[in-house]
Amino acid sequence: MATASGGILLSAACLLGGLASAQESEAEAPLSPPADAPLKAIDQEVQDLKSEVLALNRDLFILEEELLFPANTQVTVFLSFDVGTYFALDGVELEVDGKQVASHLYTQREVDALVRGGVQKLFVGNLRAGEHELVARFTGKGPHGRDYRRGTTLEFEKGLGTRYVELQIHDSEAKQQPEFVARVWE
Amino acid sequence: MGRGLSVALLACALIGLADDADARRKRYEPRVRDLHYGEVLFHFYQYDHFAAITRLLAAREQERIAHHSTEAELLLGGMFVSYGQQEDAEQIFQSLLAQDEREEVRDRAWFYLAKIAYQRAQPDRAARALGEIGGSLPRDLDAQRKLLASRLYMDTGQYDQAAAQLERWKGSDEYLDYARYNLGVALVRGGDVQRGTRFLQRIGAGREQPDRVGFFGSLGYLFTPWRLLKREGAIDVDLTYEEHQALTDKANVALGFAFLQDDQPDQAARYLGRVEDASPWSARARLGLGWAYAAQGEYQRALDPWQALEAGDPFDPAVQEAFLAVPYALGKLEDYPGAVDRYTAAIGTFNDEMARIDRVAYDAASGGFLGELLASVEGDDLGWFWQLERLPDTPQTRYLYRLLAEHSFQEALKNYRDLRLLRQNLEGWREGVSAYQDMLASRRTRFDDRVELMSEALASGRLGALDERGERVRARLERVRVEADAAGLVSADEQAVQERLGRVRDRLDTLPADAGRYTEQLDELRNKYRVLDGVLSWQLEEEYAARLWDRTKSVRELDGALAEAHTRTEALLAAREGADERLQRFAERVEAIVPRVDALTARIDGLMDEHGDYIYALATRTLDQRRARLAAYLTEAQYALASVYDSAAHGDAP
Lengths: 186, 654
Hints:
The complex is a heterodimer of chains A (186) and B (654). Helix content of chain A is 33%, strand content 41%. With 186 residues, chain A is of the alpha+beta class. Chain A has a 4-stranded mixed beta sheet. A 4-stranded antiparallel beta sheet of chain A has the order 3-2-5-6, with no helix packed on it. In chain A, strand 2 and strand 3 form a beta hairpin. Chain B is built from 27 helices and no strands. Chain B is elongated and about 185 Å long.
């Protein structure tokens, strides 16, 4: 290389320089966008906008709930997993007072989110004060990959405040199979 | 592979928290203690940050996550970092530092602050924040801390310290190769070439290729967004092999050029020759390989990789270099006609490529293919990327792919995509708000109808009349009690009997005392009357106390019923006023939203235009740079050609 023509020397030097910076771009390049004034200004503006849109979403989210599901009639049903080794969830159907109010087929990503500790808001609706019956039916694969269909029933009293019900699928180590429980949160 | 580590660090918030959740699950500790926090996690673990942040902000506002307050703040800060909201994130972590004394919380806050500072190209602040971290970070976050610290040291040329951070590195496999690579680079640059090489060699040895790489895998190989999308869960394609292979190739290229610089071309050739043909690093590797052979005087051998390169994309700088390197080698081999031909061909290629760039630049400036690209930034996160596959194979799209691989271009597109998503979100709310307005209007109508019915009922004065009657009954009973008037407590039947007896008495009174032969019968009737009247009076007297108590009890019950009626009426009135106020408050809240949505939409529109212009400018600038480089190569080729002619004419090597 050292004996190359001036032109080739130039290009070789460029090449080495390029590679050195290529190494940096992979392992050490700064994470921020290039120091470019217009992008930085826009980036700041995008951040501000996102912040405001998020605040607006928060306000609308709360308004929507208060408007559509007032606390004195609201009933919310959540679904959660505890471990989830013995049951691969495919779908769930939910009935309240004999009427189907929700059904859901799960994607793998949703199941993963549940197994990792996420809780799904399965249903939110309005019910009169008094006694109600909730029936949930779960379908999926149970131990040894067999099709599994199980249900759980809960009778609960709807009082004046919001009522939260949790449907939980958890592993019974003793029975080596899943258990399905519904309970009211106080 | 692009900014591998940068993406990895960008995903720190996710991974750190995800690992925490995994650990929690494995330990069978209680699940979430606030259902709404669990709901946030449900969206978070699906990498839907917008939904997760919205729900978390709402739950925080409604005070529904009291049991997870610190955890929620850390999560929110981490999500803000991932969502590009560094200022909001910084505010949260600074606030945690000001409020929380616990070391594990403070250490995490400092870690994220360091990362934010690094993202903002503020290395001093990042280093200071890292210095504040004690020793309570979880294993994976601690591993990422060391990676970050090593990069900070390398940025300032402190290679020994950088290497020290990565020695005995412990972390998930995900980062192991990055750590090894950086350690290798740090050691080589710090002068310990032997040890550095060893680490790079461990990566350079590569892994076994899986059976299926697939189309998406090969795309991911080229474009960094795939890695970003994969990390954020937007795609399910496993790029582990591609990521690792790209790192392997990069390590081999780095080793090759390190040995070239160290005047060990044979060693350089060994590593450069390992780079796979399909690798994004293969062009540079081939170019370097040619130089390694050339440095050993093997010009004929050097021609192989260089000539192979010539068939590559003329947009690639390494390919452009090869157009100059090939005639250079031919000149060395004294093949002057060949050298002249290739220099001439190179000049032609450079001119063609410059003309092509001019066309693409013109197209970009007039909104051509970039306009299509920006218009395709639709709906879901992947929209614009899927759209790329459908673009026709033209010179423009070829340049488009190359431009997209530029870091700054990706950042700009990401911002543009975020703006588009924000706009869609607002449009969704605009419809929602309009529905709420209708809903409130219909509730108002229904409410007004009911209020009218209620008002009519109140206006009829029924309750007032009942009050008056009740008052009269109370007064009568009081009189009976004061006067001990047993007759005042007669029942309706007894009253009828009393009246009949009265009529009988009146008739008897009209008859004469001496009625002749009927006198005896009349006396008998008068006696009967007296007996019956006496029985009735006796009965009333006898039952007076019981009757008084009974009537008093009834009146008390009547008082209760009237009081209840009053309470209900007052409650109804209060409810009417409350409902009225509530409806009014809702209406005001909805009304207040409308201008916010409008204002934000207008700002987003303006910013999208501005950002679109910026993306055009960025594309044009990049193309200008490419053109300028080609122009330099062109000059170089023309000079070299003249030099070859000159040398050929004089019979000495150029």
